[in-house]
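Case study.
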Amino acid sequence: MGHVSRARAFVADAERTRWHDQALWFVRAKRDAAADLVPDWEALRSEAAAIKREALERLPELWIEFEAQATRAGAVVHWARDAEEHNAIVARLLRERGVTRVVKSKSMLTEECGLNPHLERQGIEVVDTDLGERIVQLRSEPPSHIVMPAIHLRRGEVGETFARTMGAPEGLDDPDALTALARHDLRARFLAAEAGITGVNFAVAETGSLVVVSNEGNVDLGTALPKLHIACVGLEKIVPAKRDLPVLLRLLARSATGQAISAYTSHFRGASAGRELHVVIVDNGRSRLLAEPDFREALACIRCGACLNTCPVYRRSGGHSYGTVIPGPIGSVLEPARDLVAHAELPHACTLCGSCAEVCPVRIPLPQQLLAWRGVLAARGLHPRRRRLALRIAAEILSRPTALRLVGGLGRALARALPESLVEQLARPWTRERALPPLPAASFQTLWKRRQATARERGLPARSDAREGDGDAG
Amino acid sequence: MKVGLFIPCYVDQLRPEVGLAVVRLFERLGIAFEIPEAQTCCGQPFATAGEREQADRLGRRFDTIFSGYDVVVTPSGSCAAHVRRHGGDRSSDRIGGRGKGGTGQRTRELCEFLVETDALRGLAGRLPRRVGLHASCHALRDLRQGNPSESREPPRVEPVRALLGALEGIELVELARRDECCGFGGLFSIEQEAVSCRMGLDRIADHERAGAEIVTSSDVSCLLQLEGLARRRGSALVFRHVAELLADALAPDATAAEAADGSR
Amino acid sequence: MSNARDAILAQLAAKRPAFGRARRGLPSPSMPPDAEAVLRARIEAAGGTLQIVPRAGWIERIAWPVAEHPAAPGRGEGRSSPSVYSTLPELASRGPGADGEDWTDGAPLDLAVLRGAFAVVENGAVWQVPRAPEERRAALLAEHLVLVIEGDALVASLHQAYERIDLATLAFGWFLCGPSKTADIEQALVLGAHGPRSLSVVWLRDPPMPGKGATA
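After joint prediction, the assembly is written out as follows.
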């Protein structure tokens, strides 16, 4: 089952699709309004794009600098080539300290690595503390959005989940009351936790600092209370220096949610007395992507989710339809790099409308990248056979004007002669929800020649060169 | 200036009246043109499908056919964008000749051409109708015809709006989402049929809510998608390419109202 | 087996891209003429409040988010008085944990009153550096948070804000903007997700001296 069938299933629930579309469009509209309040919005995007690309050009130096600075400040830096190494490092750190209760804030990287199941298999309880992530964790579902993990759910479904898992009263569906319940439940877990795991928004090479943003305060409770903080960071998250932070932070929340800044923007450097900070730097395919000229700019992504919110396909097909850790346009670029065969439908889950590239705060050329993946799919013969055959035939016909006119004319004549219901049957799936256009008896070229012939007969001067009128009208 | 008219293959076969409207319009405006008979397809459907080889082949044909013209004009934002921006082969400038003086550089979407050459200067057209403007994604975001709603770049002229807005009696209705995709997307409309239709239906609802009588666009493909969905549902909306509206509105011998209502 | 660090660094060095996309630099946004109004609008948009009062007697002048006045005399022992964590000398901490004990035992903390360094006009955030670990915990565990900034305490944007921050020596510091919040259930905004339910920025500002306005 791929994106097409899952998307079809999502769209079949018209009411949910309408709601999902409007909820995300609302976020897009907030983003637009936030951009309106920044006078140099486009220049800011260009600057952020340049910063992230410069960082990608200097990755080894920057990470070495970060490591030296962070170590000097008392952090311990670890390196993981892949998800397995990452999970093993985190598990070892926890095991060595006898930790069994962990609180985790949102981190797409730990999702990508499958950290939770890995730790749970070792008897370590991991509680996702972002409300949306907690909701999907309680439902044993993956997040459907990288910023709003439970955006696919209605309030009643959250209420049912809380009733089943937290003893909430049946039928409770008020967001305030549901949030209060989760707050109460999670507060106790924060207080009991022995370690906090977080993602990282920006690692600053110059100072060895980590910047992590959140709205709920869960990142901070999860790092202020337990004595052990493990920060998991992908290779693409580094920025050269402090001066880069204002550029990126001014864009991040505005692009993500339309906020001028998140409620909490925390800067961590090293470990204070009696506490530990461990930084796990993860590759897991990123250095491989860096070698792909057509796709490596996707490593500039700052995970704001703006491309998801604006994508007309994402809004109507839901995050789960993508079947990936990261859905939407950026996911459709990143995930095929991990497994092209498994995600062969994703580069086609797009009309190339271009809206994603316009909202991207770091100017990732997403439509061109999706187009490039389509080219790779074609080159590797990964498109369905019927599709390839149909296009080959079409190209042959379109390479010959006479063939086009012949096939087109015959097709139209046949369609006009046959019963409408039969034609509609033949033209599926185009006609499942669409009426066929009324088919003209003659093509433009034919009509154009007739028109010129008529003009000549009447002795009127043809406005245009006669050369094109030479052929006989069909 | 030698003008070559490119009437894309699907317009040729499915909506010839759009091509004829361009002819009427050019004749009315006194613009001399030629329509090379060998023309078929610019290669766009193959490029968006990922089939570069076929796109390249058709792109080269296009290039050869239109090599002798100063300007290539086409009533299709997406074909113009393909020839201008993508080419069939991103690694070279062969296709559509994106390089200096190449076909790519000389290709213009119809409305863009009319505005650039100020072709309608001094002509008063009339179209007393409420019109919904469906922005072609490729005209808007590839050809930068106007400002996408996402962008905060300095204001640009939106040729379709400029041309239609100058017509007497016209009311361009205000949409809730002024530039969302119609869901066509070439093969997407078939392969992702369910999502595609949902997208199109949402656009139609927006035009209906805004009180449009006629929906127009610079792309026939968008109009085919929207019209198919609307007709199936018995919607009263009428779908016309900009060239049809302009040709009718500027026609000396017909009132615009009759022309716009004219059934095909 | 080579170690992961060296293997990753070697990979990155071998595949170094060249985008050739130079930075142009950005002019830092200047302080808007109506800085105070913009700051207030941004703080309120984030669900917080801004109170501007003269320094003298400010404790009596501002509106407190708790039912009982946090400095009401002689009521420190009863539960009807709010428990307070304060780093300002003019307001005493009181209630469980007032003697420097930690709040992490779950005792309810009604109010935290902390000093902020400065406020950022373009986004309504306050830069705050906790002096002690419990200060940060109090900022998170309190039901209500009051951040007090003083005097010439506004910067126009994050650009100027970072010019004031010495990241190289900073173990922890944060921008706080409005109360903790979530919209994870149907995009409905709820204040008080995990942290404080309200955040009030108190700007102690004596009437401006003639000929001098707020500057960055």
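Observations recorded in class. The radius of gyration of chain A is 28 Å. Residues 444-474 of chain A form one domain. We will return to this complex in the next lecture.
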